[in-house]
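INTERNAL AUDIT FORM
Audit reference: QA-55
Scope: verify that the stored structure record matches its stored sequence.
Auditor: D.O.
Record contents follow.
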Amino acid sequence: MKQIILINKPRLLYGKLLVRLYEIRKEIKGVGNEGFLPYSYIREKIGRNFSIKKSEIQELLFFLADIGFIELSQKGIKLNFKLKNE
């Protein structure tokens, strides 16, 4: 199930995190819409963007999974949303 999120100017940490995850999916070659993003790449990019520790990144990812924006698996992270800027 795809969720559509309307974001013009994300102000909260979660909104910015979702935007960064969406950008990461576009940066990685070979990952389609249904592909999984590797945890190592997520930790590297998100850690640098927000200057947060690995444990804090893990907490944010679990929170987003509880809400339903992402799916967590052993392969990585699967995005369940689509960004739309209007």
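Auditor finding: record pair retrieved intact. Helices lie at 13-27, 39-50, 54-67.
Action required: none
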